[in-house]
Design a protein that fits this description.
CATH architecture of the largest domain: Alpha-Beta Barrel
Structural class: alpha/beta
Bound molecules: 1-deoxynojirimycin
Number of domains: 3
Shape: globular
Oligomer: single chain
Number of strands: 22
CATH topology of the largest domain: TIM Barrel
Distance between the termini: 22 Å
Largest sheet: 8 strands, parallel
Number of helices: 16
Strand content: 15-25%
């Protein structure tokens, strides 16, 4: 396997709206980020991924872009952004930008022109179709609820929007559109950025004809995902983008790809195909979804998580590369979701971090994860800001679902769980802002905050630092071969990583019971060194048989 800087990096994701407010308007901004760069650097981070900071009417917090080459007023100016880039580079870190080109905002000049008339030069930059039998061109639902088609009276056609109706899908079949996008990407790369995280990039190739999806009983709209995920020309477009743009720069690329399988991920990321470096896959994020999707709650089974993550580790062993994550701005907080955010918050947050950071792939830390931030429970729907939550609340209320059941879904899976402001210290509003924050701060900031974490040597923050330092020190963590141990065990997730004559043994107890870990006989060694553990007291037992503590996590280096 070839070595590469992006394989050896740890990425930190910033959701700018919620990170740090420097000017007291209740919204995070670029100067706020600049003021916290030392904090990120001290964690040991190599690459910062900035969620969108472009001009946007904020229907979906910046994922609806009205100008790809300018900065949102809420966040500052282009001069602020340029200062950010310089300061990131001065600290020896890199900056990757979010590329949101499956759709634009409906306030983008292209769309404003396109909807004026069928003859507009920009009409074909979007996807327009006539209605079918007095209805939408297909029965697809939008990922944010309702139909994926919006009727436009002026021209008597519908346009496609896989997300909100203020996020019309761009038509990648059109070569001029593709060219404009490539030019825009070059413009940012010429400014000196270090790569892109590409938003739902495997959705960009739509079929020529829009067939209906399979309607579930009692539903008005169906999923069209089998038609638009990994669509007909997706590899052509990515290879063209690579040829035209990416191959000219030493950059990192990560494609966000709902519905990607390991087989497809190999096509997207194998080096000889010249598409992307790595994908963000979603299979492990769907293991606690019931039959009706994310709001349909189902407890996670450890066996499923082990099988899934191991499948990905093995599939991309020699070709391609994994992204490793449990958190981002679309997911609830992992310590609340998979750990125990009360009695064992610290132990379980460290256990989850160990499990992830010792795997093969590039780890992503989402702001606040490194201090064990938890989910939020607002009493009133009025306190939520996320369009997905608000639309789903309305839809489910209209469908007669009991209020409390809807709220429980939001508490478990809502995206605002991870978007409450970063908890910096115990001062009002967690030190995030001096005024009213755009989304309420989690009241637990008095105990859970970065300042307290930094001053406590046993904190989650220092544990992440140590995990990241280990990755820098031991090649086996980056490049070693993965092997799952005890696949049938109900409570323990254990695996090894092997490179040359070095072997890592990773043992994680996923629950609060105290199971025995029995070392499989084929794992032999001369010496064992404990590299990290989430309990201050060392295990005194022999490695062959260990009584684990609640949420125990340890990593040994075997030689
Ligand atoms: C994925 C992004 O991560 C999410 O936040 C956004 O709402 C959708 N794509 C649409 O851009």
């Amino acid at each position: 396997m070839n070595k590469a800087w992006w394989k050896e990096s740890v990425v930190y994701q910033i959701y700018p709206r919620s990170f740090m407010d420097s000017n007291g308007d209740g919204i995070g901004d670029l100067q706020g980020i600049i003021s916290k760069l030392d904090y990120i650097k001290n964690l040991g981070i190599d690459v910062i991924w900035l969620s969108p900071v472009y001009k946007s009417p904020n229907d979906d917090n910046g994922y609806d872009i009205s100008d790809y080459q300018d900065i949102m007023d809420d966040f500052g100016t282009m001069a602020d952004w340029e200062q950010l880039l310089v300061e990131v580079h001065e600290r020896g870190m890199k900056l990757i930008m979010d590329l949101v080109v499956n759709h634009s905002s409906d306030e983008h000049p292209w769309f404003l022109e396109a909807r004026q008339s069928k003859d507009s030069k920009y009409r074909d930059y979007y996807i327009w179709r006539k209605g079918k039998n007095g209805k939408e061109p297909s029965n697809w639902y939008s990922n944010f609820g309702g139909s994926a088609w919006e009727y436009d009276e002026a021209t008597d056609e519908y346009y496609l929007h896989l997300f909100s109706k203020k996020q019309p899908d761009l038509n990648w079949c059109n070569p001029s559109l593709r060219k404009e996008i490539y030019n825009m990407m070059k413009w940012w790369l010429e400014k000196g950025i270090d790569g892109f995280r590409m938003d739902v990039i495997n959705f960009i190739s739509k079929p020529e004809n829009f067939e209906d999806g399979d309607l579930k009983p009692g539903k008005k709209y169906a999923s069209g995902s089998k038609f638009y995920r990994n669509g007909p020309h997706i590899h052509d477009y990515l290879q063209e983008m690579n040829r035209e743009v990416l191959s000219h720069y030493d950059v990192m690329t990560v494609g966000e790809m709902p519905g990607v399988t390991p087989e497809l991920a190999k096509l997207y990321t194998s080096e000889d195909r010249k598409e992307l470096n790595m994908v963000f896959q979603f299979e492990h994020m769907g293991l606690d979804n019931g039959e009706n999707g994310k709001w349909d709650l189902k407890p996670l089974k450890l066996a499923d998580l082990k099988a899934n993550l191991s499948k990905w580790q093995l599939a991309l062993e020699d070709t391609g590369w994994n992204s490793l994550y449990f958190n981002n701005h679309d997911q609830p907080r992992s310590v609340s979701r998979f750990g125990n955010d009360k009695k064992y918050r610290v132990e379980s947050a460290k256990m989850l971090a160990t499990l992830l950071h010792m795997m093969k792939g590039t780890p992503y830390v989402y702001q606040g994860e490194e201090i064990g931030m938890t989910n939020i429970r607002f009493d009133s729907i009025e306190d939520y800001r996320d369009i997905e939550i608000i639309n789903m609340f309305k839809e489910q209320t209209e469908a007669g679902i009991p209020h409390q059941q809807i709220m429980e879904s939001i508490y478990a899976k809502g995206r605002d769980n991870s978007r409450t402001p970063m908890q910096w210290d115990a001062s009002p509003n967690a030190g995030f802002t001096t005024s009213t924050p755009w989304l309420k701060v989690n009241p637990n900031y008095i105990e859970i905050n970065a300042e307290a974490e930094i001053s406590n040597a046993n904190s989650i923050y220092h544990y992440y630092r140590k995990l990241i330092q280990l990755r820098k020190k031991y090649d086996v963590i980056v490049y070693g071969k993965y092997e799952l141990l005890l696949p049938e065990h109900q409570e323990i997730f254990a695996y090894t990583r092997t490179l040359g004559d070095e072997k890592l043994l990773v043992i994680c107890n996923f629950y609060e019971g105290q199971p025995m870990f029995e070392l499989p006989e084929h794992i032999t060694y001369q010496s064992a060194e404990l590299l990290i553990s989430n309990y201050p007291e060392k295990l005194t037992h022999e490695l062959e048989s260990i009584q684990l503590r609640p949420y125990d996590a340890s990593v040994f280096l075997l030689k």
